[in-house]
Design goal:
The complex is a heterodimer of chains A (314) and B (349). Chain A has 13 helices and 2 strands. Chain A is an all-alpha fold and 314 residues long. Chain A has a single domain, classed as ABC transporter involved in vitamin B12 uptake, BtuC (Orthogonal Bundle). Chain A is globular, with a radius of gyration of 20 Å. The model of chain A has no long low-confidence stretch (mean pLDDT 91). Chain B has a domain of 225 residues. In chain B, 72% of the residues lie in helices and 2% in strands. Classes of the chains: A mainly alpha (314), B mainly alpha (349). At the A-B interface, helix 5, helix 11 and helix 13 of A face strand 1, helix 5, helix 6, helix 11 and helix 13 of B.
Amino acid sequence: MMELFDIFASAGLWAAVLRIATPLIFGTLGALLCERAGVLNLGIEGIMTFGAMIGWLTVYQGGDLWAGLLAAALFGGLFGLLHAVLTVPFGLSQHVTGLGITLFASSLSYYVFRLAVPVASSPPTIEPFQPLRIPLLSDLPLLGPALFNQTAPTYLAIAAALILSYILFRTPLGLAVRMTGENPHGAEAQGVNPVAIRFGAIITGSALMGVGGSFLTLSAFNSFFPTMVQGRGWVCIALVVFASWRPGRALFGALLFALFDAYQLRLQTVVGKAVPYQVFLMIPYILSIAALAVMARRARVPQALMQAYRRGER
Amino acid sequence: MRFERRAHRPLILVVLAPLFAIGAALAIAGFLIALAGAPVLDAFWQILKGAFGSRLGISETLTRTTPLIFTGLAAAVAFRARLWNIGGEGQFYMGAIGVAALASGIMAGWPPVAAIPVAMLAGAIAGMVTLLVPLGLRLRFGVDEVVTSLLLNFVVLLFVSMLIEGTLKDPLAFGWPQSVPIPEAAELPELMARTRLHAGLLIAVVAALLVQFVQARTRFGMQSRAAGLNAAAARFAGVPLGVTLVKVACLSGGLAGLAGAIEVMGVKGYVTTDLSPGYGYAGIIVAMLAGLHPVGVVAAALFAAVMFVGADSMSRGMAIPTYIADVTVALSLLTMLLALFFTQYRIRR
């Protein structure tokens, strides 16, 4: 029984939490930004897959790791542009368009990957981001390896949460985004261009999703394989609700989720034989569903979420 | 330039929309094939030849069409009522494992007349129950069923994986994770000798006609369409929304469960975790391409199956990854959404 608690005392657990959380932080922030402007982006799962693929491929073809990250952001933004064109001026169903983007982006990433890399028995690898040891601080017990011995994109993710929080709640631009998500007609009456705001939010948000995906291949792991995103995008969509559309809480939610995930991974080794490993792997998905059920009625949804905005049409 | 809503949808545009969508998707796919440095027209010719060029090709295409009709119908009936069932993949696997568990457990020695209908019913019920979870969460807690049904897909796949590595594991499969085979009595008869084509195709077509009848001619069909068109107005007119949605979920989940059951009973005979190459997700595309029309689903499912089977055979001869089929089918969903838009709106300067 004590073993179940001993896991919490291991530095490895806490170091893993931030690592597992990083793609979720990027993805959740991206989805949150889109939804704050009133557009649900279910393209996230496919955009993360494409980000993982293109980031890896860029480095595999001789690019710099940061070039890989940038490529993931760029292509994420391009898929975001596609989603924006279909859902904003045309006002198509955000549910179905997003799913279409996911199916398109993920199958396209497998297609491009197979074209670039012929079938091999073991997938080719790259040299991923190395942890940045922050001197002195990383020697602290428990906290040191957890907080101050991570790869650069992890620090970037935490910074992104703080920056997004600042922009959304402390700048005129953020106010315009939130107004567009609450009431685009009212926003327009105040001189805000809801169409431009929605385009900007979806493209930027999708770029963040792409970066989140690329973390999987550029830092957490060193090669790409199909279905590696494993529903992380859908978890992010659930985390946005859990976070009540606030970046700070999104950061907290992603970390909490990652803690459960890291814990179940270690739990498997402790009670491995008694319980089938699939039960542990189910926990993250079931937790996401449970979080949705608890938060759905309490959360304050952006009022114009999933409402198409056409000028002069109610 | 702006868009103006049409007073009514011209029938000619409604009929042309899927053809335009497929044409546009194929054009973009052609561009991707050209990028890979292969001759485009030749590649498309190889796809057609692979799907229709031989007895085996035709039978494979029709075999692939069967589950797509079911998952397409499942998505179509749900979407009509604005129940966003994206969990077709999970319901497919629950149907499959439901049949495997029941048939291998108790059906040894049953006559086929009893075994086949009972097995199909078991698969359908397993699919229903799977969809009632996200619907229950929506009705009780107000949770958007899109995300929950998507997340459930992963839970179900892990559950199936657990069963076929545990309780239902086939001890004779040399350690491969697969379920015990179903008894012969529960297997569907084959339609073409020495191929994988089975009677499931006929059941699928009959199901499409039945769903068409239910939607067009019954009170439940009218209520479910009303719930989708305008939930508030439907409630005002006395449609019991909750009950209607539960019935829709039973129909939709049941159809997706049947897809999995029939795949096991007709093709494989047992369950593995790669039983479905994404039939549940492809069903959403099939439903949209069909304009949510049950009979159209059969045609749209055939298109998707042609792409999958044809691309498989094409990629053996050319250096084009078989994923081109998935890309084309996914693209046709996006182009179809656009085409549908122009059946409802016109461009005004």
